[in-house]
Structure formats: C-alpha cells, structure tokens
C-alpha cells in the first residue's frame, strides 16, 4: 500500500479517528463534558425514558460540476455520532453513494437524533455532517497504462445521463474490480500490483444546528464540495473544481418538543506567539485542552475541581503574516490531513482572523509584559491553529454559568500538551469574569503560557528565545447573547431561512465595532489628522520656517503621513457619504473632500491665532499670555489671602475678555476647584457651543458637579444614591466617548473599590486598547490649584506596573480640573508606586483643596537625608505642612513653616514653592514684618522684567513703601500698571508716594487715573496712608513754576 494512498489513510484515519479522539480528549470530550455543567442538568430517569429518537432523512437531489476523472466517483457521508444508516432491507454501516446513484435520489440515509436531548444538541452543533467526494482507483499493475473507459469518462462529465446507462456503467466498473482482486490473490503479496484505493477529490460540510426547532424539519440544502490541494502550486491550477450538491433533508417529527436552547458559545483558539524554538518542530504533535477549574479547593483532599471542556489540535508552525485567516471547525480539521492547510474552505466557519488587528482589542493578562513590539508578523513564526468549537446553552445552563462568572468561582485552564493531555508542557489561566458585565458577549484574551515544570538544570537557550517575551496564546470567547441577561429562545431562528444563518457566526453586540465605517474609526482618524496639522504648524512657528526647501526631511516625512491619513479618511468617511460609480463622480467626491479638509485646517490655524485662546501647543513655549496670565494673577492673589482684590481682578477680566467661550470655561474650572458647585452648575443653564476642543471636559465636569451636589443634598434618598447614579452616568458617558481612556480608568477605580471584578476586567479591556490613541489635551487653562501646591511630578518606583504608569496622568488630569474626588479615587490605585512621604504630600494636598483639614488633622514630619532629593522633600514637607496650618486658620504656625522654608530652600528650587512665599509675604506684611515680606515677595518676581507680573510686584512695592523706601517702591508699583486690568489702589499708592516726595503734578495725575472710574472705589488702606500726611508739609503749587522741589523731567512721567 502506498504511503500517501487515500484509502489507506482513510482506513487508518477511520480506525484511528476514535482512538485519536479518545487520546486527545482523555475524558475531556466525553458525554456531558463538552457542555457547561451538563451533569447538573440531566433529567431524572423517568423523564429520560420518555425521550424518543427522531430520524432526519437525507437524500441527494442533485450533484453538478463534477471533476473530470478516469475512475468512478463516490460520495461518502460521515458524522462522529455514528448514527447514519442507509435505508435498505439489509442493515449496513456503509454510508456511500456510488456514481450510478447520483441521479437516482437514492439511497436515503437516516440520522438518529434524540428528541430534546442537550448532549445530542452539542454533538451536532460542534460537529457538522461531512460529505466527501472520492474517485475509486482499482487494483492495477504498477507502471502499467491506466485503463479508462469512454463510458466512465462520459459518466464523470455528464450527470444528466440516463439512469439505466449510469447503472450499467457502475456495474461494469465494479465487475472490473473484482477480477483484479482475484488476480491479486493469484499473484500473492509479492506481486507487482497496486492495491485498490480511494483518492479524495473534494469535501464539504453541513451545519446541523439548523435541525433543532419545534417544527418538523424539511429543506433543500446546498453544500459545496471544495477541492483538496496538497501544494500551493496545485491550488493555483485549475485541475480540480468545486462541485455543487443539493440535499433534501426532512424529519417526520420535530427534534425539539418541550425544550429550548437560548444561547451559543463560540470558543476559538487562534495562535500561540513567542514560541520557543524547540516547540516548532513538534507542532503536529501539540494540542491544547481547555477546562473549567475551581478557584477554591474542595473536600478533605483540598483538590481543585476540574471540568473538561474541549481540546484543539493540528497546530502549524508558520510565519504569522502567511497564515490562512479562515476560522475552521476543529471537529473537521482533526479528521483531515495535518498538512492540508491549503484546503481550509472545506471546513471554514465563515469567520476570519483580521491580520491588521491581530494584537488589538485583546484583554491582556494583567501586569505581564508580552513585548508585542518585538513580534514581527512578516518574519516571526507562530503556532497557528484558528479552530472553533461551538456549544449550546439552555437557560438553566446559562444561569449556572452566570453565577460561576459573576462570583468568580471558576477560571479557564489552558494546557498545551504533547500527544496526550496527560503530557502537559505549558499551562495558563483565563479569567472569564468580563462576561459578567452587562452587554458583554465577546472578548479576545491574551493568555500567558508558563512551563508546568521549570527544569532544575538550566539548559543552553538560544539567544533569540531569550530576547522574546513570554509565550502566550490568543483565545476568543463569544456568546450569541450576553450570559448575564435573560436570553430569548434561539430555536425560532432555525424556523426562518433568513435568521438561520445568524447562528453560524457570533458578533459583538454593543462593544467596540470593528466596521470600517464605524464612527469611532473616523473619530480616531480625524484626531490623528488634527494632531498632524497642529504639529506641522508648531514646527513652522518654532523654527520660523520661511522656505520648505530648508526643511525637506521634516516635510517629506509629514507629507507621507498626511497622504496615508487622507487615504484612510477618504475610505472611512467620504467614500461612505458619497459613493461613486464613475471617474467623474470620484473627482467630485475628491473636490468635496479637499474643501472640507482645507476648512478644517483653516479652523486649526485660526484656533492657534485666537487672541486669548491657547488651543494650540505652540503657545505653550512662549510663557503666559492674556487670559491665562490674568487668571493666574487672580488665583494667586486669592490664595494669598487678598480676597477683595481677587474679586476686583476677576470682574475686570470679565469685562475685558472678548473670547467668552474660553473665559466661561476657565471660570467653570475655577468654580469647581474652589468647591462652588452651585455657581459652576449655572454654566450649563445657557446654551453652549460644542464645536471646540474643550467641550468634552465641560461634559466631564458636569458629571462631577452633579455628583458633588448630590453628596451635599439634604435629601437622604438623593444622598444615598449619589454614588450609584454617578457611576451609571459615568458608564453612559464612557460609552459615548469610547476613545477617551481616562473615563474607563476612572470607572475601573470605582469598580475596584467595590471589588466588582467583571467591571474591572471590562474597563481594563477598554483602556489598555487605547494606549496608542492620543488623549484630548487640556492646554488652554491657567495653572491649577493642585499645581500651585505640587508643581512637579514625583518619581514612581521601579516596581510600578505599566498599567499604574498609565493611571498617573489621569490622576493629574482630574486634579487639574478640580475633580478632586475623582483624583483621589484614581490615586488610591497607584499610591503604592510612590514613597510614603510622597503619598502624604499628595493626599494632604487633596484634603486641603477639598477643605477637609480640621483641628484633628495630624501633621507628619518624616525624616529626610542631606541628598539633593532629601533636601527637596524636606522643603515640600514644610510647604505642605505650612499650607495645612494656613488652611485651618493657624496663621502664626503657618508663618513659622513658611519662614523655615524660606531659609532652607535652594535658590534654584524656590519657584516650586511660590504659593508659600506669597503667603509668607502677605502674613509678614499683616504683622508689619515688612523686611521679611519684601524678601519673600522678591523671590516670587519673574526673572525677566519683560514678563508681566502683578502679585509679587504689588506686594514688594507695598512692603518697600511701609519701610519708607519710597523711591524703590515706585518701579514695582509702576509694573503693576502694565497688566491689562485696572486696579485703582495701585494708582492711589503711586499718588501717595509722589505726594510724599513733593511731586505734586505727578501725584495729581496718578490720582486722576485712580479716580477715573467712580464705580471702582479705592480701599481704606490708601486713604489711611493719605491721612498720615501732614497738610503743612504739602506745597499747594501743582506745576513746576516757583517750586524748587518740582523739577519735572521726562522720567517723572509714568507710562499709563
């Protein structure tokens, strides 16, 4: 017998198929083990006795497009259930239709199915009916001329021949083979003859799940028989063709009578990556078993209960990008030749692997670095499987599975074995808790596979293996309906021809849609387009580019990136909105696209040129400007204790700001930071534009404001449901803004606080797949109050996980927005990444900002060393502890902290503690320690006199004035007039100084300016200083005539 003979292979396969299945399952695929807890749902014996067997009758109606062959054809029907019977007088296990019977519509086969039986349902759901087309090659002399008859050839070509002729031809063929057998007997085993064999030509399958319905089944089903190719060159040829067969199937009784199935589970093993080199040659011997394993031990032996589920075999070691992307039935694949990866269409399930998104939308095992960036799909090998199992679930089974998932009672155990399941090499664990989250029916997992036994003696490992990340497999689980919801019966789908096909595939319901026309894809592309244009504008402005020729490298690179983006935007957006059928229509579509994109670019450029808007990254490199600078001044004045002056500055900003969008937004953030939530809520009472980059943050703040107002509500019912309502609003907001990772991270933190594992897994799936998508930036706001206290980032420990590193910027964002409760929640997850001293500083700052410091708060002084970092940490402790005392009104104690901070701070680090020094200056001024006040304000002055500043100049000017250093005070008070707001007290003090210096004309001019706006009153402090002046010391002459002291020069006129 030839090694590659199909009859030999088929016989061995048919004989060994059951052996292999027993070996590969090892109890894993036995009755009741292929379903979820089937043994718990078995019917009592009296009910089982009432079950009856229903027969599905199968007959061939038509077979067309047969291949040209030299020998007779045969159709073989096979199903692992082994209940196929040929309807004839004599009992036989043969399930073959010979060529002369192709047009006779006989024989008829009967397939027995137990009525209302869950085991049979799972058997037929996971194992389709297999139909194979063979040609029977008779026994012949080796090397001899092939014998073929014209009748045989014509029978292969013309299926429409007469029944009599077909029958005669068939009989002749069979009679011809028997004398050959007798001749073989005469020649003996040593004869020079080839034995009779079968050659597989094509194969197809029929999904039998459609049988299960409450009506009697009757249908004509078309099954295509796809050819089998041994090599790629044969696949490219046209020697073999696809045959089309039509089968009439019917049952006398319905297969479901008092029974419903409500869900389907699709389990797909895709591939194994980062595979050690020694495993690739063993690919054909490897298998992977999947089982449920209890998380808690049972019984006195403390063993973990294991419920076998299914197995996968037939791995192929192949370059990742060269794999066949079809998902195939595992039950069919194991019956085919292991190298027949070119014939996937014989067993495919209409599902595909998306190579461009191979490592996207995966739920990665937590805190494991798989080093995906090192995997090259074009050159690296992987163990490819791409096989599917499908299981049927009833409502009772769904409830059992739901309970196991929600309560985290079981995990999925994946074991990679060699030859037999008992010979386990690697294993990994998959947590299915994500399916306990509402609406989730689909997830792809990345599961790390670790060696079951680490070798005691370390063998020499190739360097390429050492450089790889840990081995992992991608495994997909999809339920037809979410298991945590009441499922509608699915047997009704089988009663409709249109709905029947839906049960063959599993689609994601409400999670990330992967359609190319999905709105999230377009949003992601447009965001990348905006970022690219903004980067280009920033480069031109920063480098003062006058000629593109001087920066060819940069612009050529950006031009290529822009071309790729425009092409994707065209396919995702414009080609969908304006489908084209001709070149002229396509040109018109491109014209519309050009206009819209140019308008978008113009909008980005305009945004960068707004007078008071800094919605452009290039403005951040040129210091503070306009509204940002003025709001910073107002906040510093307010935080240093000068509330009345801060209110006046804010009113002046309100009057003079032309850009109301940005001003209202900054005011909203200021109200949230200062805990004035009712005032902040008024922002949303007016209609607002949504066509600007800060709109997203306003919606986020609205959610936070509503939550804070509910927490302050006197209604106990509102207070009791505040957190629940907020989480639900946050979940809805996250679903509407799927590309924003900070919302999913915040949800994760709240779910973590509640120990809600399904929510944690779902949100982690979300935000971990958004790392490559740039987040919205908050680049046009003044320095936040949190940054006034802690302006620099603290160093994270080396043990901090990548996920925690992703959390820290989210914490900073919420702190900058003033959403301190959200910031605290995120920080609770990452605080282990910081030292104890850093945690104290951050937590204390958040308490200060939320006004949670009371008399019971205990100040902590932690020891520090004399290193640079140690000295800086000591300064931060003085800074924050002084702020604690300041927050609870102990100003004398706060003054001591600030004064010590002033003495020990390195000059290069003093800018970090500007708020403390401003408070020190104001507290010292109020206690008439004017020298200390002057020195504290001096630290806060900008390095360059060209930079406008009010707070420090005003404070130092007053400190110098009260030291009677009048000439020195004038320049500092004069600089206070350079800002874009009017403060009458500045002019009042300037008038007082010039009056005391006998510069009456200048004093009068300054006083006129101070009284320019009668509605703005001068404070009592200025009048008190005027009252100190003796009238007798004042000359009444205003001009410079006759007054020697009035020497007017150009330098005496102050810029107005």
Helical amount:
40-55%
What overall geometry do the principal axes of the alpha carbons give? elongated
- Roughly what fraction of the amino acids lie in strands? 15-25%
Q: Spatial order of the strands in the main sheet? A: 3-5-1-11-10-9-6-2-4
Instruction: List segments where confidence is low: pLDDT < 50 over at least 5 consecutive residues.
Output: 1-47, 145-190, 511-517, 610-624
Summing up helix and strand content along with how strands pair, one would put the structural category as: alpha+beta
User: How would you characterize the largest beta sheet?
Assistant: 9 strands, antiparallel
Tally of helical segments: 35
- Rg over C-alpha atoms, rounded to the nearest angstrom: 41 Å
C-alpha termini separation? 109 Å
Overall mean pLDDT stands at 82
User: What's the total number of strands?
Assistant: 24
Structure description:
With 1056 residues, the protein is an alpha+beta fold. Among the domains are: 6-17 and 36-251, no CATH class; 263-504, no CATH class; 519-609, no CATH class; 946-1056, Serine Threonine Protein Phosphatase 5, Tetratricopeptide repeat. 42% of the residues lie in helices and 15% in strands. A 9-stranded antiparallel beta sheet has the order 3-5-1-11-10-9-6-2-4. Strands 12, 15, 16, 17, 18, 19, 22 and 24 form an 8-stranded mixed beta sheet that branches. α20 (722-736) runs antiparallel to α21, α28 packs across α29 and α32 (966-975) runs antiparallel to α33. The longest helix has 26 residues, at 552-577. The chain is elongated.
Topology:
Layout: H1 6-25, H2 45-48, E1 53-64, E2 73-78, E3 84-86, E4 96-98, E5 109-114, H3 118-126, E6 129-137, E7 140-141, H4 150-157, H5 163-187, E8 193-194, E9 197-206, E10 218-227, H6 232-236, E11 243-251, E12 263-273, E13 286-294, E14 306-313, E15 316-319, E16 326-329, H7 330-333, E17 348-352, E18 362-364, E19 381-393, H8 395-406, E20 410-418, E21 424-430, E22 442-448, E23 450-451, H9 463-467, E24 472-479, H10 497-500, H11 519-543, H12 552-577, H13 583-608, H14 626-639, H15 643-656, H16 660-673, H17 677-681, H18 695-711, H19 716-720, H20 722-736, H21 741-753, H22 757-768, H23 785-789, H24 802-817, H25 820-830, H26 836-849, H27 868-887, H28 891-904, H29 914-926, H30 930-939, H31 951-962, H32 966-975, H33 984-996, H34 1000-1010, H35 1020-1027
Parallel strand pairs: 16-19, 18-22
Antiparallel strand pairs: 1-5, 1-11, 2-4, 2-6, 3-5, 6-9, 7-8, 9-10, 10-11, 12-19, 12-24, 13-14, 13-20, 15-19, 16-17, 20-21, 21-23, 22-24
């Amino acid at each position: 017998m030839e090694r590659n003979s199909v009859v030999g292979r088929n016989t061995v396969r048919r004989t060994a198929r059951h052996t292999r299945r027993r070996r590969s399952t090892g109890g894993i695929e036995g009755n009741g083990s292929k379903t979820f807890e089937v043994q718990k749902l078995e019917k009592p014996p009296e009910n089982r006795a009432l079950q009856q067997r229903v027969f599905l009758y199968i007959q061939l109606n038509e077979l067309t497009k047969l291949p040209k062959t030299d020998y007779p054809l045969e159709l073989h029907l096979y199903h692992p259930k082994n209940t196929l019977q040929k309807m004839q007088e004599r009992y036989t296990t043969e399930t073959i239709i010979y060529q002369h019977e192709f047009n006779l519509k006989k024989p008829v086969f009967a397939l027995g199915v137990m009525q209302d039986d869950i085991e049979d349902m799972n058997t037929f759901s996971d194992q389709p009916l297999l139909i194979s087309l063979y040609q029977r090659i008779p026994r012949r002399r080796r090397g001899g001329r092939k014998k073929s008859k014209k009748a045989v050839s014509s029978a292969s070509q013309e299926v429409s021949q007469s029944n009599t002729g077909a029958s005669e031809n068939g009989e002749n063929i069979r009679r011809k083979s028997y004398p050959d057998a007798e001749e073989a007997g005469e020649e003996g085993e040593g004869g020079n003859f080839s034995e009779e064999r079968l050659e597989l030509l094509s194969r197809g399958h029929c999904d039998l799940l459609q049988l299960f319905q409450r009506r009697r089944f009757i249908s004509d089903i078309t099954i295509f028989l796809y050819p089998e190719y041994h090599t790629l060159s044969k696949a490219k040829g046209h020697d073999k063709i696809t045959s089309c067969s039509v089968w009439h199937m019917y049952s006398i009784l319905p297969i479901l009578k008092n029974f419903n199935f409500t869900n389907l589970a699709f389990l797909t093993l895709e591939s194994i990556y980062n595979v050690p080199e020694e495993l690739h040659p063993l690919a054909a011997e490897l298998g992977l078993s999947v089982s449920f394993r209890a998380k808690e031990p049972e019984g006195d032996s403390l063993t973990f209960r294991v419920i076998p589920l299914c197995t996968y075999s037939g791995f192929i070691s192949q370059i990742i990008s060269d794999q066949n992307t079809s998902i195939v039935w595992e039950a069919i694949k194991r019956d085919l030749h292991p190298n027949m990866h070119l014939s996937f269409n014989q067993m495919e399930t209409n599902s595909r692997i998306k190579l461009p998104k191979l490592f996207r939308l995966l739920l990665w095992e937590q805190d494991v670095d798989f080093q995906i960036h090192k995997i090259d799909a074009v050159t690296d090998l992987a163990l490819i499987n791409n096989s599917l199992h499908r299981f049927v679930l009833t409502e009772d089974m769904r409830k059992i599975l739901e309970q196991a998932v929600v309560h985290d009672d079981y995990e999925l155990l994946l074991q990679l074995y060699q030859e037999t399941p008992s010979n386990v090499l690697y294993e990994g664990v998959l947590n299915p808790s994500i399916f306990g989250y509402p609406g989730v029916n689909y997830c792809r997992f990345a599961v790390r596979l670790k060696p079951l036994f680490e070798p005691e003696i370390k063998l020499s490992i190739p360097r390429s293996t050492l450089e790889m990340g840990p081995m992992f497999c991608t495994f997909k689980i999809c339920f037809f309906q979410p298991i945590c919801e009441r499922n509608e019966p699915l047997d009704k789908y089988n009663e409709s021809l249109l709905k029947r096909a839906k049960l063959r595939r599993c689609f994601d319901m409400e999670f990330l849609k992967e359609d190319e026309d999905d709105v999230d894809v377009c949003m992601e592309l447009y965001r990348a387009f905006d970022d690219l244009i903004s980067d280009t504008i920033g480069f031109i402005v920063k480098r003062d580019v006058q000629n593109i020729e001087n920066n060819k490298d940069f612009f050529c690179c950006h031009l290529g990136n822009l071309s790729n983006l425009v092409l994707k935007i065209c396919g995702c957006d414009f080609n969908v909105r304006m489908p084209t059928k001709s070149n002229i229509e396509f040109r018109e579509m491109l014209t519309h696209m050009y206009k819209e994109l140019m308008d978008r670019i113009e909008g980005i450029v305009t945004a960068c040129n707004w007078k008071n808007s800094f919605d452009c990254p290039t403005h951040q490199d040129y210091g503070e400007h306009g509204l940002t600078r003025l709001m910073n001044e107002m906040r510093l004045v307010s935080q240093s204790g000068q509330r009345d002056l801060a209110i006046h500055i804010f009113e002046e900003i309100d009057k003079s700001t032309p850009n109301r969008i940005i001003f209202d937004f900054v005011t909203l953030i200021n109200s949230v930071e200062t805990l004035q939530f009712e005032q902040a809520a008024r922002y949303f009472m007016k209609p607002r534009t949504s066509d600007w980059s800060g709109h997203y943050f306003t919606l986020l703040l609205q959610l936070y404001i509503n939550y804070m107002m509910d927490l302050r509500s006197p209604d106990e019912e509102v207070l009791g449901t505040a957190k629940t309502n907020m989480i639900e609003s946050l979940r809805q907001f996250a679903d509407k803004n799927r590309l924003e990772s900070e919302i999913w991270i915040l949800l994760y933190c709240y779910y973590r606080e509640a120990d809600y594992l399904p929510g944690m897994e779902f949100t982690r799936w979300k935000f971990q797949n958004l790392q490559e998508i740039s987040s919205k930036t908050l680049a046009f706001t003044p320095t936040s109050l949190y940054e006034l206290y802690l302006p620099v980032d603290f160093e994270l420990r080396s043990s901090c996980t990548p996920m925690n590193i992703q959390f820290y910027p989210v914490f900073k964002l919420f702190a900058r927005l003033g959403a301190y409760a959200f910031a605290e929640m995120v920080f609770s997850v990452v605080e282990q990444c910081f030292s104890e001293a850093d945690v104290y500083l951050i937590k204390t700052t958040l308490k200060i900002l939320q006004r949670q410091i009371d008399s019971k708060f205990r100040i902590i002084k932690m020891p520090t060393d004399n290193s640079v970092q140690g000295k800086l940490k000591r300064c931060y402790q003085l800074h924050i502890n002084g702020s604690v005392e300041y927050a609870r009104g102990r100003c004398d104690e706060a003054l001591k902290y600030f004064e010590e901070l002033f003495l020990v701070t390195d000059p290069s680090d003093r800018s970090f503690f500007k708020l403390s020094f401003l408070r020190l200056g104001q507290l010292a001024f109020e206690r008439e320690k004017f020298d200390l006040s002057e020195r504290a304000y001096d630290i806060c002055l900008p390095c360059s006199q060209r930079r406008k500043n009010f707070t420090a100049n005003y404070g130092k000017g007053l400190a110098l004035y009260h030291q009677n250093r009048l000439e020195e005070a004038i320049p500092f008070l004069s600089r206070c007039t350079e800002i874009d707001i009017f403060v009458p007290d500045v002019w009042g003090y300037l008038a007082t100084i010039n009056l005391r210096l006998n510069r009456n004309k200048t004093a009068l001019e300054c006083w006129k300016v101070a009284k320019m706006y009668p509605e703005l009153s001068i404070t009592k402090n200025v009048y008190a200083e005027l009252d100190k002046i003796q009238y007798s010391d004042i000359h009444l002459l205003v001009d410079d005539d006759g007054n020697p002291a009035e020497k007017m020069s150009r330098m005496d006129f102050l810029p107005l």
